[in-house]
Amino acid sequence: MGIFAKIGKWAIIPLLYFNLNLNGQDLDDLYFGTNETFEVMTWNIEWFPKNNQITVDYVTQIIQALDIDILAIQEVDNIDMFDQMLNGLPDYTGYLESAWFAGLAYIYKTEVIEINDIYEIYTTSPYWSAFPRSPMVMDLNFMGENIFIINNHFKCCGDGIMNLDDLGDEETRRYTASNLLKEYIDNNLPNENVIVLGDLNDILTDPLENNVFQMIINDSENYLFADMEIAEGGSANWSYPTWPSHIDHILITNELFDELDNSDIQTIKIDEYIDGGWNEYDQNISDHRPVAIKLDFGSSINGDVNGDGVVNILDVVAAINIVLSGEYQVSVDLNEDGSVDILDVILIVNIILTGNE
């Protein structure tokens, strides 16, 4: 008689609902960061600590394993336990100050991240409806690159229908928040490396009339949701499995488009590295999975238009074709004047002749 017949069919049923870690992985196998790349992650940590010291221990181990340069956190509830967790992360420090307690925080590696400033925007009462938590901006240097990160937690909920005539409508509030962020970047950081990220509480794939991010998506020359492929893909890789939906996003400006070819972006499925799987993760850590991006600033060669690792006549041909097409491509705009023209082609030729990249 087989084992299933011996234990009976009713004994098997609970196994169907118990999400075990079947891959034999544990948190020691979890990783993302490297010494050569810049990594930033957004993580709604669901009113940290969700299960007191158990959560603190888990999150400490997860951060150490991932080895990510900067974590943009949402929903920190207990400042004392947050500080306690940081004490267990000697390579990191944190920032949790706010005009009023909003649960937004940063955790970052002190050895590689140089902070110029951290501040909030849209803090006054006219913006409270759009931003129940004021966006938190980090101005930093990493390996000679100046980068601005804007951490957010948009208004939740709604019925999926955007009613622009109702200023209290949840979708309308997120739509207003998205456009205000775009306005801030356009006016204050037009030529900077900017990453906007966080729990934005809405999906990227809604139809135009209900898409709270449509104004940003339409401006594809200047903005790109780096996680769009995740949003358009299957639910297995989405950040909020219990709905299921993908509502945690990473948006970059065009100054980072050339780094995108050397990037890696993914929803980090920590639950697959924990015994008990999603049930254990949801009970003790969060109902959101983090989303992270890895950028390699060192691999981008000035003048390497076709991305083959060398600058030669093929790049000149590629650049001329782009000029003739009338398209804009950051890797061709060598003089950074906002346009692609014959002056950029001349600079590529000069790189080839002089060998100075």
Structural notes for this entry:
α3 crosses α4 and α10 (313-325) packs antiparallel against α11. With 357 residues, the chain is an alpha+beta fold. β6 (136-142) and β7 (145-153) form a beta hairpin. The protein folds into 2 domains: 27-295, Deoxyribonuclease I, Chain A (4-Layer Sandwich); 313-354, no CATH class. It is 29% helix and 21% strand. The chain is globular and about 60 Å long.
Quickly describe the structure.
The chain has 357 residues and is an alpha+beta fold.
Task: Outline the fold blueprint.
Layout: H1 3-7, H2 9-17, E1 38-48, H3 52-66, E2 70-76, H4 79-87, E3 92-95, E4 105-109, E5 114-120, E6 136-142, E7 145-153, H5 170-188, E8 193-199, H6 214-218, E9 223-225, H7 228-232, E10 248-253, H8 257-260, E11 264-267, H9 277-284, E12 291-295, H10 313-325, H11 342-354
Parallel strand pairs: 1-2, 7-8
Antiparallel strand pairs: 1-12, 2-4, 3-4, 5-6, 6-7, 8-10, 9-10, 11-12
Order of helices and strands: HHEHEHEEEEEHEHEHEHEHEHH
Q: Which strand order does the major sheet show?
A: 3-4-2-1-12-11
Low-confidence stretches: 1-22
**Would you give the CATH topology of the largest domain?**
Deoxyribonuclease I, Chain A
End-to-end gap: 73 Å
Mean pLDDT equals 89
Structural class: alpha+beta
Strand content: 15-25%
* Total domain count: 2
CATH superfamily of the largest domain: Endonuclease/exonuclease/phosphatase
State the CATH architecture of the largest domain: 4-Layer Sandwich
Strand segment tally: 12
Query: How would you sum up the major sheet?
Result: 6 strands, mixed
CATH class of the largest domain: Alpha Beta
Radius of gyration: 23 Å
**Estimated helix fraction:** 25-40%
Determine the number of helices (DSSP H or I, runs of at least 4 residues). Answer: 11
Shape: globular
